[in-house]
């Protein structure tokens, strides 16, 4: 009985080793097969992403500069700066010249403590007034008392700053690292000195 069991177990081990050897030979001898074509309805999101990446890699025709995302576009050449008259200009005019055609963000803090919908209404009103003056700005209210105005032509930001500083609802404006106090800023009373 033991002899039969050992003969059967040795035979099984030999069969497993032969099967394993044959399986390895099949892998080595075969060339890598191309994936089978799937029905378009069976594509998963990962398949669609791979297909899109392959399509983008094989696209020989580059996009024109105006269709590229803004960060990939070549820098625009602004108007030439007249360095002879630069000493006679105020800093705002110099900044307007250097930011022409570039994207600029302006941060606006609102006076008081308006609610979110009041801030939306107020900044929407200012955006409309700017648009009526041919100043294009995108408006984003980020907090109840804070909004961002985005100008694709940075030179327009300084004209908008002049307009916004005249509004009662502005506490301060931050533009290119400079802080400008608005009309809505409450002036602190000076301390009285008693003699």
From TrEMBL:
Q: Does the keyword Endoplasmic reticulum apply?
A: yes
Record's InterPro entries? MESD
Q: Where is the signal peptide?
A: 1-24
Which UniProt keywords are listed? Chaperone, Endoplasmic reticulum, Signal, Wnt signaling pathway
Compartments (UniProt record): Endoplasmic reticulum
Which Pfam families does the UniProt entry name for this protein? Mesd
What family is this protein classified in?
Belongs to the MESD family.
Please state what the protein is called: LDLR chaperone MESD
Organism, per UniProt? Orchesella dallaii
